[in-house]
């Protein structure tokens, strides 16, 4: 288990991390989700031994990580740029860490080939790096991170350079492999889809502080603030409340509202209508439009609200998981 308590990091007068506390169990993946500059990569740098914090503690399976040099921390990192050695073939890249730790070359090569097979690259061990596709290079990087059997796996935005289709495939692959490991994994990303797909739990960072953590379902159901709601993808967010998609009601019995703007989407239409005091944005599928004509600016849409479905801030007592903050 990874246990982080009260971690604080500052560069000169700027606080980068402030009283960060997290737990990641063996076999669990936790995503650190937040915008650029929120402190996500700085936290990984502390864990890897590249930065020394001003306060707090970090323990991994009972060991005090902060007292150990980087090479003794028994962790592995997977980067967004793969960081493969171009002069080595795929298997040699995977075997590199084993050889550095003293494993005989033949044995290291065998273990590397086995790990490549485990990530779906059984026939690519002798392939030169420049001949590998982006997805194959990503799998080689994953195999290299896993082959030394680390006690902690750190994933630093490993999918940010991939196109959408390849990212979807690799997210499923990596999730499958991580599920079979009994090591904690920490994923850093600014992409909520990556975080919600790959991680069992998510911690959202804002200005170096954890403002909410929980399962993806918990966060989507009850974002802790208007800022969190916007960050995780809610469109209709106001100072004291947000309108989740399930709060909208369509049908002839609802008020007729003027359509202000329309934007086609891959799975329907994004429609902006005149709401109660501020415009509302709805994503309507072809089924919801019941085969009628596409919505047009200047037209009308019958839409109302279920008041009981609105999310209001501050949240009521007992609705926020531990370590959450109501700032936003």
Automatic annotation (TrEMBL):
This is ABC transporter ATP-binding protein. One of its GO terms (molecular function) is ATP binding. Keywords: ATP-binding, Cell membrane, Ion transport, Iron, Iron transport, Membrane, Nucleotide-binding, Transport. Transmembrane segments: none annotated. InterPro entries: AAA+_ATPase, ABC_SmlMolc_Importer, ABC_transporter-like_ATP-bd, ABC_transporter-like_CS, ABC_transpr_FbpC, P-loop_NTPase. Gene3D superfamilies: P-loop containing nucleotide triphosphate hydrolases. PROSITE patterns: ABC_TRANSPORTER_1, ABC_TRANSPORTER_2. Signal peptide: none annotated. Residues 2-232 form the ABC transporter domain.
